[in-house]
Design goal:
heterodimer; A: mainly alpha; globular; B: 307 residues; alpha/beta; 14 strands
Amino acid sequence: MKPNLASPWWRWYPVWSRNVRVWRKLLGPALLGNIGEPLLYLLALGYGLGSFLGELQGLPYVVYLASGMVCASAMNTASFEGMYSAYTRMAVQDTWLGMLTAPLDIRDVLVAEIIWAGTKSLISVAAILVVAGVMGLIADLRALLVLPLAWLLGCCFGAMALMVTAVARNYDFFLYYFTLLITPMLLLSGVFFPVASMPGYIQAGAAFLPLYHAIALMRPLMIGTWPINTILHLTVLLLYTVAAFPLALHLIRRRLMK
Amino acid sequence: MNVTSPIVRLDALVKCYGQQRVVDNVTLQVNSGECFGLLGPNGAGKTTTLRMMLGLTRPDSGKLTILDRDTSKHAREIRCQIGVVPQMDNLDPDFSVIENLRTYASYFGLRAKQVADRIQQLLEFAHLTSKANATIESLSGGMKRRLTLARSLVNDPQLLILDEPTTGLDPQARQHIWQRLRELKQAGRTLILTTHYMEEAQRLCDRLAIMDQGQVIAVGAPQELIQIHIEPHVIEVYGNGAEQWSRQYPMPAQVRVERVGETVFLYTQDEKPFIDDLCRHPQLQFLHRRANLEDVFLKLTGRDLRE
């Protein structure tokens, strides 16, 4: 019964698995939030607001909104996890320190946290897909391809959130990131209305936002078509993830390995 | 295992934060099977030294070897063989007592099935068997410390590093932890602990190092340090007129006198004449005792507050 060092490819697993087990303990409220909230939004905005709006880009508004909300939910879930929850584990409960005094290092913890943020996005998107499916807002089985994309989007926003967490001194600090980045992204990436209706410079700016590219990939899959420029959109999401990871790693290492 | 072979070697270890040398040229050896204490006022560099042993802080210069491995290159392998009790409890509040042990074992690559028996033993060792399914929140401070100690043993470590293991505990809980630490030492494990409690160090440690301002200013067995650094008898005189008495008494040159507030400390080879004289002054209160580690500590590090 001697400790055995896992292969470098699997060192994230015990940390990820710990997060899964904590999540399972709070399964009730977690799932209620995951299912209840999108259901309310779809009913209220989709049908309520939708009855005034009619069709958007040839789609009933509720269908348009459902596909946007899938992406928004993946973004929000991963951002919350990478900020509030990860900060709690890093700075409040010292959970990470416990891991770091075992044979794990910051890279292992960070990889696990990013994969976990992706996992949470995947769970939340799966819940919305069920709701949307029951409401008849999904065209065909292509929608299942949204799941791996939701995971990738979650990893991307998880990695970015962890950069913010690395420099945060308290929970309030996250409001900067939410107000200055997440909320504008939510409003300008085509979740609620098409970006094409905005002025040209905003459209140009939106093209740099990861959420915009996630929507370009996921909305077609939900309405029964294939996305175009798939490689480009995937590349942008991957680039954000790959750029955020070493930065977050550097900042957290600087903070914890004084 | 050879009892006197060093398990930890610190060689001219230096760590600076900005201009401050937090650990300043520290050279130490900890032998296998001993309980080694690191003592020092706040900010002496104890915790930084421990962090360097775990590979959590990188030394600016010097060499640190644990179990014949260089910590700057093999921190992960070394941590496999070490158990850690951190200064602050960082038990997982979302898990029960037993889940905390299982989860911590998983960080060492140990599966729940592999460690099931060991975890039962650890619960018994920590007197927490009846609390196996309790939440962390419901545990007392002493129970949390015992669980943290049990947690540090999941990987069956040769070396245990304990950063102020009994700070904040009541006397009963402290005695309990001491008893557990003695058992661990008898079982052949090596213990390194930091503490503010001189009594703790004197009772538990085979050898200890006193640190101040990043430097080791004394190393040795507690009794040895007392013999080398301090007179064998201490008389504390207090109450009205204590100071006046100490100034009127024909004090021999070799007696060391310290006045702290209203108390006069006399450090002497021969206590009898003082006791005889003090008995003639019933208005004075006094206490005669043998010199202890705290006297050594205060002599070497001074009586100024460290904050």
